[in-house]
Amino acid sequence: MLGPVILAASRSDQMRRFVSAAPGTKQVVARFIAGETVDQVVPIITDAADKGLEVTLDVVGEDITTPEQAAAARDAYLELVERLKDLGLGTKAEMSIKLSMFGQALEGGHELALANVRPVVRAAAAIGTTVTLDAEDHTTLDSMFAIHEELRKDFPQTGCVIQSYLFRTEDDARRLAAAGSRVRIVKGAYKEPAEVAYQDKAEIDKAYVRIMRILMEGAGYPMIGSHDPRLISIAQELGRRAGRKLDEYEFQMLYGIRSDEHLRLAAEGHRMRVYTAYGTDWYGYFMRRLAEKPANLLFFARSILTK
Ligand code: FAD
């Protein structure tokens, strides 16, 4: 019950100010956010690589209000590409992008987001890595998929994300499960209405399994984004049945969540990618992590009260 309340709070400026200023916040945020600057995140990338893990990097931020902020977001990713070039990790260090941060919600936002994201995707391709477009709330998805399709004409390795809580997603998965595509399946992290999304956890999980089957049996490259142990073992079984080798799909988990499991799957020979978020505008990302697990909220409340 707490999840939807926290997700509603994630859109509130008043809550943003309160949470950002609260004593103790920084320490809890640090569990999910790898750092504030690219300099702080570079050692985390190399440490992950030393442990046999791969990463996808997310510069946090989404509720921008001006084209200048969208351009700044693009530049932050271009700065990141420069650093990734020096590390020379290829696709072992790729990037995840939220198009809202690139201007999608502004006037003329579809074209603006496409214009801002294209140079980042081009720069990524030039250093031998990839970009994945995150899935945000359902009202943004037609635009995200259209931008994804457009980018794939020149950069076919560009990935995208689909969410099992949405009724539309099985159709999207069938369309996307084609040769050369890279698709991350997740449960979905936004507050969505009953007209478009399953509300019941068991229904969301069942849909997740149906969608994984479509992706595993298809010709694309499935990226299984979940910490759910049941879904992870079903993914392994579906991969086996579809005749996929261990490097013909990958697991993805979030930085700071079930870190032992990252290492266990990598040690079993799986490709394991850690979604590593960094930056100063962490509020929306952080609140979604609290909404996913009420125990996080208790931990957060305790750390504020004891400061
Ligand atoms: P759950 O049933 O929520 O969790 C299973 C178990 O994992 C829990 O019991 C708990 O032990 C652990 N766990 C899960 N979440 C947390 C947490 N926050 N803190 C502590 N423990 C936790 N959503 C989108 O809408 N769009 C995206 O583009 C997107 N990208 C993602 C990329 C990756 C790599 C991952 C892993 C998730 C992404 N998500 C995205 C979030 C996703 O939609 C879910 O909200 C989130 O992954 C929780 O679902 P779960 O599959 O882990 O299962």
How would you portray this structure in words?
It is an enzyme of class 1 (oxidoreductase). There is one protein chain. Helix 9 (201-217) links the parallel strand 5 (182-186) and strand 6 (221-225). The two termini are 27 Å apart. The longest helix is centred in the first third of the chain and has 21 residues, at 67-87. Strands 1-2-3-4-5-6-7-8 form an eight-stranded parallel beta barrel, surrounded by seven helices. It folds into two domains: 1-33 and 282-307, no CATH class; 41-278, Alpha-Beta Barrel (TIM Barrel). It is an alpha/beta fold and 307 residues long. The chain is built from 13 helices and eight strands. The chain binds flavin-adenine dinucleotide. Flavin-adenine dinucleotide binds next to strand 4, strand 7 and helix 12.
Task: Provide a concise account of the structure shown.
The protein is of the alpha/beta class and about 300 residues long.
Topology pattern, helix = H, strand = E: HHHHEHEHEHEHEHEHEHEHH
Summarize the main sheet: 8 strands, parallel, barrel
Q: Within the CATH hierarchy, at the fold level, what is the topology of the largest domain?
A: TIM Barrel
- Summed over residues and divided by their number, the pLDDT gives a mean of 94
- What is the number of strand segments? 8
**Quick one: CATH class of the largest domain?**
Alpha Beta
- Ends apart, CA distance between termini: 27 Å
Count of all domains = 2
What Rg do the Cα atoms give? 18 Å
Structural class: alpha/beta
CATH architecture descriptor text of the largest domain? Alpha-Beta Barrel
Query: Which descriptor suits the 3D outline?
Result: globular
Q: With helices defined by DSSP (H or I, 4 residues minimum), what is the helix count?
A: 13
Proportion of residues in helical segments: 40-55%
Strand content: 5-15%
- Strand order across the biggest sheet? 1-2-3-4-5-6-7-8
Q: What small ligands are held by the chains? A: flavin-adenine dinucleotide
Low-confidence runs: none
Domain Proline dehydrogenase: 46-299
EC number: 1.5.5.2
Catalytic activity: L-proline + a quinone = (S)-1-pyrroline-5-carboxylate + a quinol + H(+)
Protein name: proline dehydrogenase
